[in-house]
UniProtKB/TrEMBL annotation, chains A, B:
It comes from Octadecabacter temperatus. The keyword Hydrolase applies. The keyword Flavoprotein does not apply. It is an enzyme of class 3 (hydrolase). One of its GO terms (molecular function) is aminopeptidase activity. Gene3D superfamilies: Creatinase/methionine aminopeptidase superfamily, Creatinase/prolidase N-terminal domain. InterPro entries: Creatin/AminoP/Spt16_N, Creatinase/aminopeptidase-like, Creatinase_N, Pept_M24, Pept_M24_MAP, Peptidase_M24B. Its EC number is 3.4.-.-. It comes from the Bacteria. CDD domains: APP_MetAP (cd01066). Transmembrane segments: none annotated. Coiled coil: none annotated. This is Putative peptidase. It holds the Pfam family Peptidase_M24.
Length: 387, 387
């Protein structure tokens, strides 16, 4: 039945695809093949939870000029038909004899010259969402055309957000902000952590999330040891630090930030760790500028934590954000990606409070010409207390 | 902090891996490389929503004999450390210079003889969850070892569920059953569909889902046109058929079934369509036996719909179910996969009520020696009415 208007104007999609095509020209790509939910959503606005089914591959082919071509399972024809695309080719998937391969090969053959190059994202943080054997079939069938790495084109374009995209991410952050303010309503000493996780998700839906693609968190005495495990039924207890983190989704755009709470008053070690994280984040907010690299920002935060006497936690200290929970770059010592105006990023420093006990602090920002603009409401320096 | 017990006994995981290794022997595989959330969960019990971040690859290598080896980002070490695995190798990911490639190559070199074959799922309904360029690097580095298709091994083993797995799927179905009974509490004429979707997800969490990975649905006068679009704010109206479908998750196991509701009394055309769907499903429930193929079952249902004078809807008429929303096989005319005892399946016939207006009916079953056992509570033949 859906009569949803496309989420963005055709002008916005044209802007996106023109930038991809400009990069393709620089990278000498005569076409670009996209297969993942995020890449396809980016260029078409095709938004559905149906990706949860791994049964069917979906293809978008971006030619050197002109609009993208969709080669998709027929079950998606109605929804893709609402997009700005005018060339939508479908087959009945899954088809064990030919699951879109011939259709895709035909589209590539029509679009890319015989000695041309087809870009496919194949670098860090990418994957190909189609069967490997079918990808090999496509590669053979389109010879002598080459398949080459299209990662740079996709990443350099997608990482700069338009104002309309920034507004979407801000709206999702505002949903999470409202929910983090409500956490004391449903989290307190004695409440099992798995029930807190359920109530947190319920509150995100109540406050306007379309769905909740990611919830993480942890609770432990004087800090937590692991932030990716599912919640257990263990009740919260006085002295616990509770951390909740979410990637809620509204109109296909994610937030990704966490908040920490102390069950009863925090220990002095916990508050010192929190102070160090707060100050490292303040420094990042005050000094980050376009032209720095991801590694520069990581250096700023680790140095600040060290100066505050804190033990720097492992892992990255933030990343890109947008139409997936995490996007490139990564704030690590090794990532030399330049930070540019229009990037939406998370600042996520972590410290080790004591052996195996951590605290992680996270904010969402957009990088402007003169520095970061917060998309999340700044966390308080003093840990909020739960009863 | 998590101190969750592994979801299943070591005996269960040994049963799974031994069956994989038996198939590997038949298929002449000296090792099997797994990269997807479901395949890794299947052999290790590693359950986390952290897969939502596409940043990092994760690897499980199954040798010809003995326990699997985990080669994973260090952020997963604590959680994987709770599994039955004893060989867990980690690196700080994402690493732009070497994102687990060297570690994985070493593990393969230790495990697989020089002229051996490494299986990787590359067939229908699979994909490789790691960067393609890194996969090529691994392939080159492990030469002269071969990389070959491991799809059959994974699919023939995973599709037969143990009783403990069946109990998990049944528990998730029971959550959805309770929520479908509550739909009249939150869906009625005048209620915007997007709010119905939110309340449906809230109810699933309230009834015990850990998270809600999939919600779909639609509403339309005398049937619906599209079942994969996000909900719009359009209010339900008298004469609409509302369909809600969910893949809720509990302990990592999915349900996947829908229910239809009529807003006010259904038209005779809608009730006739519903009758045809109900009877086709009854026939499948009464006649399906191990030894039939997926195509046989599709034939039974399409024939029953035709005999009832209904117009057969497009798309498949059901599929496997378990640790992803949809698993192989597919009930289509082309899928000749044998149906075997212990398979968990959805029966999902669809009809076209009038031009572009559909009705889809779905149940979840486990196939026993003497036929299907329902895991979902059988839908009523008469469409429930909403106010």
């Amino acid at each position: 039945m859906s009569d949803a208007a496309p989420l963005f104007s055709t002008q916005e999609y044209l802007w996106r695809v023109t930038r991809l095509q400009d990069h393709m020209k620089t990278e000498q790509l005569d076409g670009l093949l996209l297969t993942t939910p995020a890449d396809i959503f980016y260029v078409t606005g095709f938004l559905t939870r149906f990706w949860e089914s791994p049964a069917r591959p979906w293809f978008i082919l971006i030619p050197a000029t002109g609009r993208p071509i969709a080669v998709i399972p027929s079950i998606g024809a109605a929804l893709m038909g609402q997009s700005w695309l005018d060339d939508i080719r479908t087959w009945d998937a899954p088809d064990p004899t030919d699951d879109g391969v011939s259709l895709l090969v035909d589209a590539i053959a029509e679009t890319i010259p015989m000695k041309g190059s087809l870009g496919v994202p194949m670098g860090l943080e990418t994957h190909l969402r189609m069967p490997l054997a079918d990808f090999a079939r496509v590669g053979n069938a389109i010879k002598p055309r080459n398949i080459v790495d299209g990662t740079t084109t996709v990443q350099r374009v997608r990482e700069i957000k338009s104002e309309t995209q920034i507004a979407k991410i801000r709206a999702t952050c505002e949903i999470a902000d409202r929910v983090f303010a409500r956490v004391p309503e449903f989290a307190a000493s004695g409440k099992p952590l798995d029930q807190v996780f359920r109530d947190f998700q319920i509150a995100l839906l109540q406050e306007g999330a379309d769905w909740v693609s990611y919830v993480a968190g942890s609770a432990g005495q004087g800090g937590y040891g692991d932030v990716i495990s599912p919640a257990t039924a263990q009740p919260l207890a006085k002295g616990d630090v509770l951390m909740l983190d979410t990637g809620a989704v509204k109109d296909g755009y994610f937030c990704d930030f966490d908040r920490n709470y102390s069950v009863g008053p925090p220990s002095s070690a916990v508050q010192r760790a929190q102070d160090a994280l707060f100050m490292a984040t303040e420094l990042a907010l005050n000094t980050l500028r376009p032209g720095m690299t991801a590694a520069d920002l990581y250096g700023i935060m680790t140095k600040a934590l060290g100066a505050a006497g804190a033990t720097v936690g492992g892992g990255r200290f933030g990343h890109g954000l947008g139409i997936t929970l995490t996007e490139w770059p990564s704030f690590t010592a090794k990532d030399t990606t330049p930070l540019r105006e229009g990037m939406v990023l998370t600042l996520e420093p972590g410290v080790e409070v004591s052996a195996g006990k951590f605290l992680v602090h996270e904010e969402n920002i957009v990088l402007r010409a003169n520095g970061p603009e917060l998309l999340s409401t700044r966390a308080p320096q003093t840990l909020p207390e739960l009863g």
